[in-house]
Amino acid sequence: MTAEPLERSLDRPGRRPAPPALPHLLPPVLRAAREADLPELRRLDAEVFQEFAYPGFLLRQLFDMYAEHFLVLDEGGGRLRGYVLAGTRALGRDSWILGLCVTPDRRRLGLGRELMTEVLASLELAGVDTVRLTVEPANRVAIALYDSLGFTAEHPDAGLRPHYFGPGKHRRILRLDLTGRSAG
Q: Each residue's pLDDT tens digit in the chain (184 positions)?
C-alpha cells in the first residue's frame, strides 16, 4: 500500500462532465475521510439515506474503526458530495461495504463507480478476498453499478433477504470475490 495520502481530482479526460444545467459544479476531489468531516458526513448520510442514516455516534465509531477504507468526494468549501465506507474483520479476509452514497445533484456522473473502484482496489491491496454489500431490491441503478463491477447475488434465493432491516425492509446481498482479480 502506498504511503502517499489519497487525494486526487476527478477532472480528467474521458470522464463525464457535469450536465449543462449544472455548469457551476466543479469536479470533486476523491480523498480519505478526516475526523473534521464527521459533521458533514452526518448531514450527507441523513440527506441520502433518510430513515436508514447512521446515528451520529455510530458514524463516529465506524470512522474510528475503518478510516483506512472511508473515502469521500469533497467539492471544497466544506461540502461533501459522496462517500464509501468498507468495514473489514480483524481476523479473516472478508469485508462489507457499509455505505455508498452520492448526492442527488451529482448522480449519473460516474462518481459512485469512482468511489467503489477506489475502495475495492484498497481492499484488494489490504488482502481482502471477499466483499459483500446489501442493496434495496428495487434500486436498479445501484444493482446495475454493482453488477458492472463484478458483484453477483449471494446464494440462496438470488441474495434476497426478506425483512433484513426489519418488517418489510428487504435487501439483496451481493458478493465480489477479489481473489485473482486484476485491480482497475
A: 333 455 666 555 555 555 444 445 567 899 999 999 999 999 999 999 998 899 999 999 999 999 999 999 999 888 999 999 999 987 779 999 999 999 999 999 999 999 999 999 999 999 999 999 999 999 999 999 999 999 999 988 888 999 888 899 999 999 999 987 654 4
Retrieve residue 127's grid coordinates.
488482502
Q: How far is CA 135 from CA 18, 58, 88, 101, 114, in A?
A: 26, 20, 18, 12, 18
- What's CA 120's distance to the chain center, in Å? 9
Q: Say if residues 49 and 85 touch (Cβ distance below 8 Å).
A: no
The grid cell for 37 is 468531516
Strands 94-102 and 130-135: parallel
How far CA 139 is from CA of 72, 134, 170, 172, in Å, comes to 22, 11, 11, 10
